[in-house]
User: Fold this.
Amino acid sequence: MILIKLGGSVITDKYAYRSFDAETVARLCREIAESDQGTVVVHGAGSFGHILAKRYALNSGLVDFGQVPAVAQVQYDVRELNSRIVRALMDVGLPAVGVPPGSCFVMDDGKLDVGEAEAVKRLYNIGVMPVTFGDVVMDRKRTFGICSGDQLMEVLAKMFKPKLSVFVSDVDGLYTANPKDDPGAELIPEVTPEVLKKISADSDVDDVTGGVIGKMESMLAMCSEGSECVMVNGKVPGRLKSVLMGEETVCTRARA
Ligand code: IP8
Assistant:
């Protein structure tokens, strides 16, 4: 089984509220279908979630009841994004079903609790592709909070023990420096905890490699014997399919 996260920056324009990149999504769905692997898909919220979530501080939990309309609006917006992704997967012949975390799961002080996730397992077992996503989720301590696609990836990886987890991003992978402002930056094809430690130590600001360090940390935490994590650029046609087919391509592989 392969677990795929379609990052919000690939499927939407991060800066324009509710802007959907239909062309990229259709191509990525084709690549997933052509690879012909059993997959579970998670997607980020992009501009369908982050803009309002930030404006109304939804990640802080309930601060005042003025946030409540935004809880409903963000849930509505990310469900609409999910429907569009599910539609695109069905258009290429994949039997996809949306699984909204806000309606199926809870959090406990920021930690996602999916219980047995029996419905997700049963969907997968009959050949349905569950498609879940970053959402506003009720929290036992904070009333509500933001559940990210990355949190879902971690929990689903523990549950399904995938042979491969793929993070589809808008960058080629981890660089030795930020490729946006350092022409000497080189892509690192394979990252280990030691390599990451060195890069973090060499970086004088947090986000020096373009915000990828944190993502690599969670990827390394998800790796185990017989299970690999890869970051690949979904904006470049063909790369996701190559990764799914086990072919060589430009990407960063995490090894524990
Ligand atoms: O895009 C965030 O999920 P992510 C979810 O995977 C919301 O970080 C609602 C902002």
